[in-house]
Design brief:
The complex is a heterotrimer of chains A (480), B (97) and C (482). By secondary structure, chain A is α+β, with helices and mostly antiparallel strands. Chain A has 3 domains: 5-290, no CATH class; 299-412, no CATH class; 420-478, Orthogonal Bundle (Arc Repressor Mutant, subunit A), CATH 1.10.10.410. Chain A has 15 helices and 17 strands. In chain A, the strands form 4 sheets. Chain A has a 9-stranded mixed beta sheet. A 3-stranded antiparallel beta sheet of chain A has the order 6-5-16, with no helix packed on it. The longest helix of chain A is centred in the middle third of the chain and has 20 residues, at 222-241. Chain B has 97 residues and is α+β, with helices and mostly antiparallel strands. Chain B has a domain at 7-43: Histone, subunit A (Orthogonal Bundle), CATH 1.10.20. In chain B, strand 2 and strand 3 form a beta hairpin. By secondary structure, chain C is an alpha/beta fold. Chain C has a single domain, classed as Amidase signature (AS) enzymes, CATH 3.90.1300.10. Chain C contains 15 helices and 11 strands. In chain C, strands 1-3-2-4-6-5-10-11-9-7-8 form an 11-stranded mixed beta sheet, sandwiched between helices. The longest helix of chain C is centred in the last third of the chain and has 25 residues, at 372-396. Chain C is globular. The model of chain C has no long low-confidence stretch (mean pLDDT 97). Classes of the chains: A alpha+beta (480), B alpha+beta (97), C alpha/beta (482). At the B-C interface, helix 1, helix 2 and strand 3 of B face helix 9, helix 10, helix 11 and helix 12 of C. Strand 10 (141-145) of chain A pairs antiparallel with strand 3 (89-93) of chain B, so a sheet runs across the interface.
Chain lengths: 480, 97, 482
């Protein structure tokens, strides 16, 4: 009988913090920029340079720790992690090993299939990001850009509490939602501002002891994480079934080939010789400081849900979607504040916005349209200045390019024609040229009026108000 | 107690320190390390139970910077001493990661 | 013109202000002296004559216009080659930095320049400040101007020799385990290591970050106080820089030691101390007693543990601090190394000298997996005990008095063959760095061979003024005897 296996997964999640400057120097953290244009002696490891800690990094790390139920370490400090690699200009990374800023937290998750559990957080520590290596085919060499070197990161280390890819995704979604609400990071996997390393082992169902685990890196989408978990689980089970050993090692996942391979070379002893960084002084976190960070914490998703229910009386499903990400919730609240009609705003988000997001493969955090433009659009529909099909067309433009709907409608001449004389004339013409449909309607086929409305709208290039057209048709047909 | 440093240990420390020692240098390094460690072992005479390791002499903490951008593009200076550069980046032997 | 070189830095600045000399005269005199003695002494790695003269001319203009009025305006200075100087080669006396031209200057150098001092060039040192003789320099040894058969001490040997040979009026050095005080003592000049955090380390190429301090090497105690006052600053770029209110050190230049309590550690005068040195140092204690100080012998605890503690901590930090020298961003890169790790190893093995490699190996070992607790943490615990010993001593005494080194300057070529023996020579200076204390070395005579002897005064943290007062009082009294 085939053995049954259980997958045991722990995650190390790196999140780039949303500070303006790097963790130890006054260089910008802005994404992009020509190579090495956001660098200085400190973040390129020049001899004689020294680090000075960015206070905001500590506050963001504390905020995330508090929101994930961690204990805040009152006296914490930085350590050096020593290893040679060109993206690491000092050949040591300033990180925290001995006294990380947060410990012993947990996050409550609920998977799509309804599993509810708490994933424990072992620790959260602060550290600096590395630079970027680019392979140069022409020279058959590598090129180093230190723009990302020194960008602040927190590493959130979970306990091995997850048992499936589904739980991992739910955990990551929850972390992302929490951190985005705090404004501590935008958590974009594709751009690397959120990255997950997966520690995975398998064991026979019912076994007490954990199996030997491997660590997988280079996972930059939920899809890749899912594939990597499945792939690694199967690889380890195959090894065990063949009577071989799983080797504890770091592996790199290649999503295009759908396989992983070991990263370690014999020149990497993986002995990081951590010791307290003598260039940085300890951090003391007082009760008062913790209280201040707590007070500054914005309204989080669970509180928002309760408030939306009371204040806006929206369906629970809609509330869940809208509060699911901070970006959606912000758009909803700001648009509602401008137009005063939460139901309509919700309809636009749940309908057209979700449709376009799916069509264009856009994540909520990448929504760029301004609440003002959506509010203006809703107002124009309310005032019957445009009809709903024109509105949808205009919204596509708002969604894609954040155009100003008032100017756009004006410029393209999309306003509804409210000239009754012109409408009457067009309807008379449509009735005259479609005797069959008129006859059908007259003989009781009420549906035939739809065709006539359509013909009228077409003749008026869509710029008529469909309900006015309908009324006019009925009036004229009844007179026949 | 005399410390004995093996060939493997010297090899290993060489990898950590990224130093390539000749055979003579390795023998010398073994001797030096053994001698220094014997000397350092004198510290074990001291009872340090309950003594906190002292990294910093002064109890100073919370030295911070405000989160304000003060550095502009200084890439010309940063690359000035580069042994090899290309396209405003530092050129190194091919790496796999 | 010839006697311009006999002036101290402060006297020179006064003479320039008075119009007796110009800053250019002073620089020219120093450069002429360099022409005379440098081929023997070899105090410098780099001398930039043109720039030095041009800067001296600029300083002179500012002095004449009244823009520069400070006590060091127009004075030619030498800088140890481990402090970054913008646009001027900075090698740490190592091959691995043989082509490194910093794009910024260290804070201490900037403070000097702001005060109108003019940089002549960069002085020779033990490679990366690792050594006690300036013989580990990649650029050749420096000789002691008092007797060129002998070493000048180290690691700031070039700075001490430059001052002693009148190849500058004053110099900056750095002190991690005695590297200012010991060469000052060997060359017969004044040298001071300030309380940790008093002078910014920004721009100082680190050896042992928790121990390194920059300080002056100069002709007398007045220069010493004046230079320290100029370079001390709270620097937001250095997290370990201290905010001090009491940096007006020249106020302590008073002849008065009445009631000053001086402790003499018995163990500092035991076996291994050269007899001439012992006599000269104890004579200083007698002199100060005569002038009204209370002098008493006492037992300083844990002295013998200072050296192993120091080498564990300093080498551990150094092994990490020197990782950045890898041939990627600056400095020497070995040719024909196609693979990354080959390139690292080849560049570093060819770029570092034997003493640096020895310390990197030890430092890497004591931090490595399985040894960290037994060696590194143990050393940090003993460091706490050593600090406590000094706290206890300073509860009773204002100043601790002792020798700087067990002997006067050894002959060239005698030290490197036995590193352990060389390390033991640091016994009196090293614990001062471990405890973050200030220490000053003041000349107090010569031995039978005519080699200078220095006395060391050690103060509690932030008590430089007491040191300066005692040193100044002794110096003035000794002058009167002559």
């Amino acid at each position: 009988m085939a053995k049954e296996y259980e997958t045991v997964i722990g995650l190390e999640v790196h999140v780039e913090l949303a500070t303006k400057t790097k963790i130890f120097c006054g260089c910008s953290t802005a994404f992009g920029g020509a190579p090495n244009t956001h660098t200085c002696p400190v973040c390129t490891g020049m001899p004689g340079s020294l680090p000075v800690l960015n206070k905001q990094v500590v506050e963001y790390a504390m905020a995330v720790g508090l929101a994930t139920n961690c204990d805040i370490t009152r006296d914490c400090k930085f350590d050096r992690k020593n290893y040679f690699y060109p993206d690491n200009p000092q050949n040591y990374q300033i990180s925290q090993l001995y006294l990380p800023i947060c410990r012993n937290g947990h996050v409550d998750i609920e998977t799509e299939s309804g599993v509810k559990k708490a994933v424990r957080i072992h620790e959260i520590h602060m550290e600096e990001d590395a630079g970027k290596l680019v392979h140069d085919e022409w020279e058959d060499a590598s090129l180093v850009d230190y723009n990302r070197s020194g960008v602040p990161l927190i590493e959130i280390v979970s306990e091995p509490d997850m048992r499936s890819a589904e739980e991992v995704i739910a955990y990551l979604e929850k972390l992302r939602q929490t951190i985005q609400y705090l404004g501590a990071s935008d958590c974009k996997l594709q751009e690397g501002s959120m990255r997950a390393d997966v520690n995975l082992s398998v064991r026979e169902v019912g076994a007490e002891k954990f199996g030997t685990r491997t660590e997988m890196k280079n996972l930059n989408s939920f899809r890749a994480i899912q594939h990597a978990i499945e792939g690694e689980k199967n690889r380890q089970i195959d090894l065990i079934e063949e009577g071989k050993q799983v080797v504890q090692e770091t592996r790199r996942w290649d999503d295009t080939k759908a396989e992983s391979y070991p990263m370690r070379s014999k020149e990497d002893a993986q002995d990081y010789r951590y010791f307290p960084d003598p260039d940085l002084v300890p951090i003391h976190i007082s009760e008062e400081w913790i209280a201040r960070v707590k007070d500054a914490q914005p309204e989080m998703a669970p509180e928002k849900k309760i408030r939306y229910k009371e204040q806006f009386d929206l369906p629970e499903y809609d509330i869940n979607i809208i509060t699911g990400t901070k970006q959606m919730a912000d758009i909803f609240e700001e648009t509602t504040a401008l137009c005063g009609n939460p139901k309509k705003v919700s309809n636009w988000l749940m309908g057209e916005t979700l449709r376009l997001m799916k069509e264009t493969n856009t994540d909520p955090e990448d929504l760029t349209f301004s609440p003002k433009h959506l509010a203006d659009l809703i107002a124009m529909v309310d005032k019957k200045e445009i009809n709903s099909s024109v509105a949808k067309e205009v919204f596509e433009k708002i969604f894609a390019e954040d155009i100003d709907p008032v100017a756009y409608v004006e410029e393209k001449g999309l306003k509804t024609v409210n000239d009754e004389g012109a409408l009457r004339k067009t309807v008379e013409e449509v009735i005259a040229t479609n005797p069959q449909s008129v006859a059908d309607y007259k003989s009781g086929k009420e549906k035939a009026i739809g065709f006539l409305v359509g013909q009228t709208m077409k003749a008026m290039k869509g710029k008529a108000d469909p309900s006015s057209v309908n009324a006019m048709l009925k009036e004229l047909l009844s007179q026949m | 107690m005399a410390n004995v440093i093996s060939d493997e240990t010297i090899e290993y420390v060489g990898i950590l320190a990224k130093l390539d020692l000749s055979d003579d240098e390795k023998e010398q390094a073994k001797k030096d390390l053994e001698e220094m460690l014997d000397y350092i072992d004198e510290l074990s005479e001291l009872d340090t139970t309950g003594v906190e390791p002292m990294s910093h002499v002064f109890p100073v903490n919370n030295v911070f910077r405000e989160d304000v951008v003060v550095n502009g593009d200084d890439s010309d200076n940063i690359l000035k001493n580069a042994p090899e550069e290309k396209d405003n980046m530092f050129l190194v032997p091919k790496t796999f990661d | 013109m010839s006697d311009i070189l006999s002036l101290t830095a402060v006297e020179l600045a006064k003479a320039i202000k008075a119009g007796t000399y110009t800053a250019v005269d002073a620089m020219q005199a120093v450069l002429d002296q360099i022409d005379q003695t440098e081929s023997t002494v070899h105090a410098y790695v780099t001398i930039d004559r043109e720039k030095a003269l041009a800067k001296a001319a600029q300083a002179q203009k500012k002095i004449e216009s009244g823009e520069l009025t400070g006590p060091l305006a127009g004075v030619p200075f030498a800088i140890k080659d481990n402090m970054c100087t913008e646009g001027m080669l900075t090698t740490c006396s190592s091959k691995i930095l043989s082509n490194f031209v910093p794009t910024f200057s260290s804070e201490a150098v900037l403070n000097l320049e702001k005060a109108g001092a003019v940089i002549i060039g960069k002085t020779n040192m033990d490679e990366f400040a690792m050594g006690s003789t300036t013989e580990t320099s990649y650029y050749g040894v420096t000789r002691n101007p008092r007797n060129t058969e002998h070493v000048p001490g180290g690691s700031s040997g070039g700075s001490a020799a430059a001052v002693a040979a009148n190849e500058c009026f004053a110099a900056l050095g750095s002190d991690t385990g005695g590297s200012i005080r010991q060469p000052a003592s060997y060359c017969g000049v004044v040298g001071l290591k300030p309380t940790y955090g008093t002078v910014s380390r920004y721009g100082l190429i680190a050896y042992g970050s928790s121990l390194d301090q920059i300080g002056p090497l100069c002709k007398d105690v007045t220069d010493c106080a004046t230079i320290l006052e100029t370079i001390a600053s709270h620097d937001p770029k250095d997290s370990t820089s201290m905010k001090r209110e009491d940096t007006n050190f020249t106020e302590a230049l008073v002849q008065d030691v009445k009631g000053l309590k001086i402790g003499i550690p018995k163990s500092y005068f035991g076996e291994g101390l050269q007899e001439d040195v012992k006599k000269a140092v104890l004579a200083v204690a007698d002199k100060l007693k005569e002038l009204g100080a209370e002098v008493e012998e006492f037992d300083l605890q844990h002295v013998k543990y200072a050296i192993p503690t120091y080498y564990t901590i300093a080498d551990a930090e150094a092994s990490s601090n020197l990782e950045r020298f890898d041939g990627v961003k600056y400095g020497y890169r070995a040719q024909d190394a196609e693979e990354l790790h080959r390139m690292y190893k080849k560049s570093r093995s060819e770029g570092f000298g034997p003493e640096v490699k020895r310390r990197i190996m030890l430092g890497s070992f004591v931090l490595s997996s399985g040894y960290y607790d037994a060696y590194y943490l143990k050393a940090l615990r003993v460091k706490a005990l050593i600090k406590k010993s000094f706290d206890d001593a300073f509860a009773k005494y204002d100043i601790i008095l002792g020798p700087v080194a067990p002997t006067t300057a050894p002959k060239l070529g005698c030290s490197l063959s036995n590193p352990m023996q060389m390390y033991l020579g640091d016994i009196y200076t090293i614990s001062v760095n471990l405890a973050g204390l200030p220490g000053i070395s003041v000349p107090c005579g010569v031995d039978a061979k005519g080699l200078p002897i220095g006395v060391q005064l050690i103060g509690d943290c932030f008590a430089e003024k007491k040191l300066i007062r005692a040193a100044y009082t002794y110096e003035q009294a000794a002058k009167e005897v002559q």
